[in-house]
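INFO  loader      accepted 1 record
INFO  loader      residues=457
INFO  predictor   begin
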Amino acid sequence: MSDLKPREIVKELDKYIIGQENAKRSVAIALRNRWRRRQVDKELRDEIAPKNIILIGPTGVGKTEIARRLARLTQSPFYKVEASKFTEVGYVGRDVESMIRDLLELTVNKVKNEAKRIVEEKAQQIAEERMLDLLLPKPQPTQMSNPEKPKETPLELITENGSESSSTREKLRQMLRQGKLDNRYVDLDLPDRSMPIVEIFSNVGMEEMGVNFKDMLGNLMPKNTKRRKIKVPEAMDILAQEEIQGLVDMDKVIKQAVEKVEQSGIIFLDEIDKVTGKESGHGPDVSREGVQRDLLPIVEGSTVNTKYGPVKTDHILFIASGAFHACKPSDLIPELQGRFPIRVELNSLGANEFARILCEPKNALLLQYTALLKTEGVDIVFESQAIKDIARVAEDVNNHTENIGARRLHTLMECLLEEILFEAPDMNSEKIIIDSKYVDDKFKKIKDDEDLSRFIL
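INFO  predictor   done
INFO  writer      dumping tokens
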């Protein structure tokens, strides 16, 4: 992240997202400012608050994709959540603090996996020694005593040839590494993982109840083990995993995870417009303004209690997004508006953008379908005019029905290639060319029948 300049961040985002230059520039600057803050003197560092962003634009124009690619680019802790899932405190529903707990849980697992990779080689070596102990048990010293004089100390005669045992062990080691013992079975004591089922009559998860019931019950219950006969490769994997668990310092992992969340965490609040606007005076509508007031302390900086300890949200970057077709960002409560100083409007997509989206990104739709059909030995080629026609149809359907942006292309491509995808396993290494006539034939009936297109496209 320290090496990425705003221009380079935009260049990386361009590989996956077409257009939306203003949004890319804003998030690139916000990201670089996080790195800049960490270079500032400690006294001033804590005073610099993150500049949260609201992305405004219709669905399917790239709001979520920008945030997701940004998180992958910087390896920052990232969590996406829909604001409409939250309800005001006092109602049945998710508490806003749960997004911090979920972000920390994801980060702990990520840091833990990184720590596991570091100790993997050492764990493999220890597991190998344990496996050799199972395959070649150490000989027990034979004891000979005089039955007539039981009170005397018995003489111990150890009949063990050290060099011979060592030689046999090394031979077994070579056989184990070469896979010659893969069909042998060993007896292994495995922990019995069966735990009593605890049902809690609530729609919130256990992690949101403040106490980690799973760990608590696990410590109260006796740790039963059961002996199983397992093949050597599977037993090696089990032994290696046991050693990895022992070598990873969980206290250090949790400390690193909490620090990463507090200093470089990103939370993407989607559909924030769904909790915007005045109360509707009818129906079972949960207080939307109440959700905003619950969000306010999290966004402006507070301490959230989790099962891993307290987490400060002062420097977590919040990126909110919404279509805002039925309301305006100014309908948010004034306190929350002030916590999202950067507002970027994303443009609707037209035929030109759709044509580029089909071809240019690294994960372009045409590349995906070409690769999928190649697994069946079918080569599919799209002519340039056919691509333009698909883009034009996508624009027309979006204009006449619901505008769902680039997501319309997924629907069109499935409809266009349905027959080929169905027949592909029975084709004999054919080359199929998708031209303008093929596109027109496939879409003509559906596009002409507007009632039908509402349901299909």
